[in-house]
Amino acid sequence: MKKRLREPFSYTRRPGFVIFFGLTLVFLYLPILVLVVFSFNDSRRNIVWRGFTWDYYGKAVGDGDLMRSFANSIIIALTSTAISLALGALLAVLLWRFRFAGKSLLEALSALPIVMPEVCVGISLLVFFSAIGWPTDLPWPLNLGNIILAHVTFTFPFVMLVVRARLVGFNLELEQAARDLGASGAQAFRHVLIPYMRPGLVAGGLLAVTLSLDDFVITFFTAGPESSTFPIKIYSLLKRGVSPDINAASTMLIAVTLVLASLGVFFQARASRREAPLRGGDGDGDGDDK
Amino acid sequence: MSETSETTETTGTETANPPPPNAEDEIIRFDNLSKRFGDVTAVHPTSFSVRRGEFFALLGPSGCGKTTLLRMLSGFHAPSEGRIFIDGEDVTALPANRRPINMVFQSYAVFPHMSVGQNVAYGLKIARVPKDERARRVEEVLSLVQLNGMAERRPSQLSGGQQQRVALARALVMQPKVLLLDEPLSALDAKLREHMRGELVRLQKQVGITFIIVTHDQDEALSMADRVAVMNGGRLEQLAPPQTLYESPSSRFVADFIGRINFFAARVVAENGARVVASPVLGTLAPALTPPSAAEGEEVTVALRPEKIEVQASPPTGDDPRTRSLPGVIAEVSYYGDYCTVEVDLRGAEGSQRVTSFVPNAIRETGVQFSPGQEVWCAWWSSDILVIDEAAN
To answer: I need a surface site. Which of A2, B72, B99, B190 has the fewest CB within 10 A?
Structure first.
């Protein structure tokens, strides 16, 4: 038996790396940790730890305005994500599959909202909606319509990019195989292409939900008094001073985001685990072939 | 299969008339089929038939148009001109999903998100075959390709060879009139490839379905197929059983592409009132070898396969009029285990030329006893000389 060599990438054995890694974590997560911890602090003023309590969660949940804005956020996130998924996926397939005049222009234009400063997008949407005379007095939940449209404009490019990246690895023979076995074009799309895109759709969808849930700037410009979202509500509460129920509400938002992000990672990992040993063109055939 | 019927079919590609349709015998007929991609012609107008129940190979180097031809047959490319008949029915306008043929793709294209059983059942499900019958047929075909009990497996759990069997089963379960195989063995390692050749032939005999295999590997085509169509530059060069291709190639390309061969320059000349082929190295050939259509003064190609040249250490003693021999000097010997290639600088009447000969390593104790620089004699049967008349094609 040979003596086992020290693995080159075992960072934990080098104290320098451990410190560096630890500092990174502190830098990234200490503020959030403080926020979460103080949401359980039994004190009005939020500076000194006075003991554990769930009171402010009860208070936050009991706040009708806050809960209405939370519901608004959820409705906006789900609806805009559904629209973004359909739009983004179709655009991704279009750009991946076909060659046509102006394709690179369309490609660049559809990715532009990602880099556009949010303030500009927000103002342009505000001006746009008032210019076309978008009704401001619609009953709930129709009054969320313009925010939903605004969210679609900045979330669907992300869906498009993620799905497109996924499609690059698609083996066209899979679709041809389906056609060869009798499937119509629509059936092949449904039975082969969509299942293949699924990890991209899940990842893109979760990205869209998260982006929509915590968007402040663009929503701020498009929301009316009756259609404020959770982040905007929290901001308006802040004007009356930082109180633990804001911490509690924020912690709930963090929890929702965290769950969604973990789901995304889980689905991605499962998809790549399933496909990993599938041959693309280099089958080895050294398995059991009898 | 007579020699003459082969020739008729081969020359049929050059004339405008397709071979007379024989509904009993042919399962597929290409009628002046051609394909252009923009300015590039991938397949020039080509006509030939594939017989019912045969193992047919489309052979050629990459870019010769064999894959384009296969894709037109499967329905993934629309022909620029010409028609395709499957079992007497014109399918030229039918989309891929409505043609009674199925394909084993080069990448196997096994659906990664379905189990083996779901993969095989997919086509039957689309065709709305009742559940009971579906299950029965899937099980049957899985045991045919020796994947019994694998129905629940995921494709990612299978080896390359097993994935290929899934692709085979998935196509065979549809009971197609013709099974197309696109370079099916190219991704397997050498040992398994050898094994799968025999397996495919066995399977074809067992199910009785016409197989059309596309390959660039001549060994594969020769060892498996009943008939081989050799393509080059978008044209059909020759369509014949393997032995005819090898022993009587109709063009220099076919002679060169299949196996190894020695070429000699030659010309048709008049001698004693008869037209004979004369080569500076080989001398004058027997009048019987003169191609009937070759005019006097025309250049022809003379060829001789390496294994038909016998290298001898001493001058041939017997004076058999059916053999010829020439002296030479060995230039190079390469050892391959079961045989050696011996390169000999042949000294002819009016010139010399280097030829390759295969010398079998027949006796273990002596081995092959030739070395560079050695004076030797090369002998062959006169009837083994091939005269290829390019102008006749």
So the answer is: A2
Whether the CB of A191 is below 8 Å from some CB of chain B: the reply is yes
Q: Which residues of A touch B169 (CB under 8 A)?
A: none
Closest chain B C-alpha to A87 CA, distance in angstroms: 24
What is the percent of chain B with per-residue pLDDT over 70, rounded to a whole number?
93
Domain range B8-100+176-255, its CATH number among 3.90.1570.10, 3.40.50.300, 3.50.30.10, 2.30.40.10: 3.40.50.300
Q: Tens of pLDDT along B241-275?
A: 999 999 999 999 999 999 999 999 898 988 887 88
Partner-chain contact A279 B160, CB within 8 Å: yes
Q: Helices A64-97 & A230-238, crossing angle to 10 degrees?
A: 140
* A290 shares contact with chain B (CB less than 8 Å): yes
CA distance A57 to B279: 103
Whether the predicted pLDDT of A199 surpasses 90 = no
Question: CA B130 to CA B85: how far, in whole Å?
Answer: 30
CB contact (8 A) between residue A184 and residue B97: yes
| 8 A C-beta contact, residue B304 and residue B387 | no
Asked whether residue B14 carries a pLDDT value surpassing 50, the answer given is no
Q: In whole angstroms, what is the distance from residue A200 CA to residue A212 CA? A: 18
**CATH number for region B260-388:** 2.40.50.140
What are the domain boundaries of chain B? 8-100+176-255, 260-388
**Prediction ipTM score:** 0.80
